[in-house]
Write a structure and sequence with these properties.
116 residues, c-terminal domain of poly(a) binding protein, rod-shaped
Length: 116
C-alpha cells in the first residue's frame, strides 16, 4: 500500500477549525489543540442550550401569565384550572402573548374561564 502523507490536508483541516474559532480569546483562536477543545465544548453547550431555551421560554410565559392574571383578580394556577374546567383551550405561549399585547382580550379569556 502506498504511503500517504497528510501535510497539506492536515494544515487545511487545522486552519478550517481555527477559522471557526475566530473571536475567542488568546490561544483558543490561535492553536489547534486549544481551538479544538473550545470548539467541542461550544458544540456541547449549544446542544444542551437548545433544550434549555424551551424550559426558559415556558418559565417566561408562566411569569407573564401570572402577572396578567393577578391584574385580573386571580392567580396563574387558579386560571389554568378554571380554563381546563371550562374547556378554554389556549396554550401558554398564546396566553402570554395575549397578556403582553392585548390586555383586554386576556381579560375576556379570564372572564370566560371564570364564568363556566
Amino acid at each position: 500500500m502506498a504511503r500517504v502523507k497528510s501535510g497539506p490536508y492536515r494544515r487545511r483541516r487545522h486552519q478550517r477549525l481555527i477559522d471557526r474559532n475566530r473571536g475567542y480569546m488568546g490561544t483558543r483562536s490561535k492553536l489547534f489543540r486549544r481551538a479544538n477543545e473550545t470548539f467541542l465544548k461550544a458544540q456541547w453547550y449549544a446542544y444542551g442550550d437548545r433544550r434549555n431555551r424551551k424550559r426558559d421560554l415556558r418559565r417566561l410565559w408562566i411569569v407573564r401569565i401570572n402577572a396578567a392574571a393577578r391584574l385580573n383578580g386571580t392567580t396563574y394556577s387558579k386560571l389554568i384550572a378554571q380554563m381546563r374546567r371550562s374547556n378554554v383551550v389556549l396554550n401558554r405561549k398564546m396566553l402570554a402573548d395575549l397578556a403582553v399585547r392585548d390586555a383586554n382580550a386576556f381579560g375576556k379569556v379570564v372572564q370566560a374561564a371564570q364564568s363556566a
